[in-house]
C-alpha cells in the first residue's frame, strides 16, 4: 500500500482529512489491503452538500461549451491514466483484467465523452402557439410557449460496488452536463476509483464545489448525503431495500429521485431458439462481475421441448469457465466483493438444495484458492416459481432454470416477480419474440441478445427502480422542465 492510496475526502475543491479516520479497502482476490478510504463525519457530509449548493449558482450558468470542454478534458485524463486506473479497479473489485479495462474504466471514459456532447444538446422545445380569448386571465392574444430543461440543483450520487467507474460516470457526467453540482458517495467496498475520477475532474478544471466525494463504511454517511437540506435530488444504484429507505426520506421533502435497484432478469428460451446463442447470453451471468450485476439473466424459463438440452449445454458451458485470480490470463470468473457476500451466496445455494431444486453444478468454494472470496458458478435445475432462489435477487454467479409449457405460461412466469429491470427472449420466430417482449413488465427486453444500445433508456418497472437514464434520457433525468410563456 502506498501513501497515494491513503485517501482524503474531496470537499469544496480541497482534499480534507476525515474526522472519522480511515478504513481498509480489501482486495477480494487476495484479501490484502488495497488502500485506506476516509470515514467522513456527518458534519463533513453536510459541508460537502453546502459547498455543492454554493457552487451551483455559478456552475448552472456556465456556458454549455465550457461544461463540455471540462468533461472532455476529464475523459482525456482518465484515458491517460487508464493503466493505473485499471489496476486499481481490479484490485478493489476483483474483476478480471478484461472486465476492469473494458467494462469499467473504458466505459467510464466513454460516458464522460458522451455527456461532453450531451452538454451541447438543445434544452428548449418549442410548443404550438395558443389563441386565448379575452377573460379573467387578460386580453385576447396569441401566446407562445417553450419547455426548457433546467438543472435540478444539488444531486447526491450514491453508487454501486460492482462498477466503480461506469456507474459513477453514468451519474456524475450527465448531472454536470446539465449544470448540476454533485455530492458523490461511493460504495464502501471500492471507493478509491471514484477519488481517481475526482482528481481527473479537478485537473480538468471543474470549479471548487462542483464535484464533492465523501465516503465511509457506515450507512450514516449515505444517510447524511440523502438528508442534507441542500440536496435537491438523489440518484441511487443498489438494492431495492436500501432504495425504499432512501425513497421514504426523499418523500418527506419531495426530493427528486432516480433509482436503479434490484433485478431478477427472466430469460425466456422457446423451443425454436438458437440454444448456443441463448447459453452464451445466459453465461454472462457467471462471467461479468461474477454475477454481481442487476441486469443478468439469472432466472431462465425454458420451454419443455428444449429444457433438457438447455440444461446440458449450460452445464457444458460451466466446465469451460475458469475460476481464479482475476489478474491471470484465461480467468473468466473472479471473486465476489467480500467474505460477507460470499457467505450470502453460499446460503442461497444451501437454501436451493433445501427447497428441492437440483444443483447441477457449482456452488462450492473452488479448490486451490485458499485466499479470496470465490464461489464456483452454480446452476440449479428443476426449480419452481415459488422457490426463494427463483424469486429473490442473489447477486452472484447463480442461475436457476424453471420449465414452462406454452407462451402464456412463460409470460406469466416471467411477470411473476417483484422485479422488472431487464428481461430476455430467445426465439427463432422474431414476430413472437417481439409480441412476448411487449407483454413483459420490464424496463428493457433483449430479443435474442444480452447486448445493450447505450442510447436506449435504462431503468426498471416495479421494485427495480424509478426513472430512466442512459443516452439523452440521463440528461432528462437530471433536469427539471420549466415552461416559459409570452404574448405574441
TrEMBL record:
InterPro entries attached to this UniProt entry: Ald_DH/histidinol_DH (IPR016161), Ald_DH_C (IPR016163), Ald_DH_CS_CYS (IPR016160), Ald_DH_N (IPR016162), Aldehyde_DH_dom (IPR015590)
Name of the protein: Aldehyde dehydrogenase
Family: Belongs to the aldehyde dehydrogenase family.
Gene Ontology MF terms in the entry: oxidoreductase activity, acting on the aldehyde or oxo group of donors, NAD or NADP as acceptor
Pfam families: Aldedh
PROSITE patterns according to UniProt: ALDEHYDE_DEHYDR_CYS (PS00070)
Top-level lineage group: Bacteria
Protein source organism: Streptomyces purpureus
Keyword Acetylation assigned: no
UniProt KW keywords: Oxidoreductase
Presence of the UniProt keyword Oxidoreductase in the record: yes
Domain Aldehyde dehydrogenase: 15-484
Amino acid at each position: 500500500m502506498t501513501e497515494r492510496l491513503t485517501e482524503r475526502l474531496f470537499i469544496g475543491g480541497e482534499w480534507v482529512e476525515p474526522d472519522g479516520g480511515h478504513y481498509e479497502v480489501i482486495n477480494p482476490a487476495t484479501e490484502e489491503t488495497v488502500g485506506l478510504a476516509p470515514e467522513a463525519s456527518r458534519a463533513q457530509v453536510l459541508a460537502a452538500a453546502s459547498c455543492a449548493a454554493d457552487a451551483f449558482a455559478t456552475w448552472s450558468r456556465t456556458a454549455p461549451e465550457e461544461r463540455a470542454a471540462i468533461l472532455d478534458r476529464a475523459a482525456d485524463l482518465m484515458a491517460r491514466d487508464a493503466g493505473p486506473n485499471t489496476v486499481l479497479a481490479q484490485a478493489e473489485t476483483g474483476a478480471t483484467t478484461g472486465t476492469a479495462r473494458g467494462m469499467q474504466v473504458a466505459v467510464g471514459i466513454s460516458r464522460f465523452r458522451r455527456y461532453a456532447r450531451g452538454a451541447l444538446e438543445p434544452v428548449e422545445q418549442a410548443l404550438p402557439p395558443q389563441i386565448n380569448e379575452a377573460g379573467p386571465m387578460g386580453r385576447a392574444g396569441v401566446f407562445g410557449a417553450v419547455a426548457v430543461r433546467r438543472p435540478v440543483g444539488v444531486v447526491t450520487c450514491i453508487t454501486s460496488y460492482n462498477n466503480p467507474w461506469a456507474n459513477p460516470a453514468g451519474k456524475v457526467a450527465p448531472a454536470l452536463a446539465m449544470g448540476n453540482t454533485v455530492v458523490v458517495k461511493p460504495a464502501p467496498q471500492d471507493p478509491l476509483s471514484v477519488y481517481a475520477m475526482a482528481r481527473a475532474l479537478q485537473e480538468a478544471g471543474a470549479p471548487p464545489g462542483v464535484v464533492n466525494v465523501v465516503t465511509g463504511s457506515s450507512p450514516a454517511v449515505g444517510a447524511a448525503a440523502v438528508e442534507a437540506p441542500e440536496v435537491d435530488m438523489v440518484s441511487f444504484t443498489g438494492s431495492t431495500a436500501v432504495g425504499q429507505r432512501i425513497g421514504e426520506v426523499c418523500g418527506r421533502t419531495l426530493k427528486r429521485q432516480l433509482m436503479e435497484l434490484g433485478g431478477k432478469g427472466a430469460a425466456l428460451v422457446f423451443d425454436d431458439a438458437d440454444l448456443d446463442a441463448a447459453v452464451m447470453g445466459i453465461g454472462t451471468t457467471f462471467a461479468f462481475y461474477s454475477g454481481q450485476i442487476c441486469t443478468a439473466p439469472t432466472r431462465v424459463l425454458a420451454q419443455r421441448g428444449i429444457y433438457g438440452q438447455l440444461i446440458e449445454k449450460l452445464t457444458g458451458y460451466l466446465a469451460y469457465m475458469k475460476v481464479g485470480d482475476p489478474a491471470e490470463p484465461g480467468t473468466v470468473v473472479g471473486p465476489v466483493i467480500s467474505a460477507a457476500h460470499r457467505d450470502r451466496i453460499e446460503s442461497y445455494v444451501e437454501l436451493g438444495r433445501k427447497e428441492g431444486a437440483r444443483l447441477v453444478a457449482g456452488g462450492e468454494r473452488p479448490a486451490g484458492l485458499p485466499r479470496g472470496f470465490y464461489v464456483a458458478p452454480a446452476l440449479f435445475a428443476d426449480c419452481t416459481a415459488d422457490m426463494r432462489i427463483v424469486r429473490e435477487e442473489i447477486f452472484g454467479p447463480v442461475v436457476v432454470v424453471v420449465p414452462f409449457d406454452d407462451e402464456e405460461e412463460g409470460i406469466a412466469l416471467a411477470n411473476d416477480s417483484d422485479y422488472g429491470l431487464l428481461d430476455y427472449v430467445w426465439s427463432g420466430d422474431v414476430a413472437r419474440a417481439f409480441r412476448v417482449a411487449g407483454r413483459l413488465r420490464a424496463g428493457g427486453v433483449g430479443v435474442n441478445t444480452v447486448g445493450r444500445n447505450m442510447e436506449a433508456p435504462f431503468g426498471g418497472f416495479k421494485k427495480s427502480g424509478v426513472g430512466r437514464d442512459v443516452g439523452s434520457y440521463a440528461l432528462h433525468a437530471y433536469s427539471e422542465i420549466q415552461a416559459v410563456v409570452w404574448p405574441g
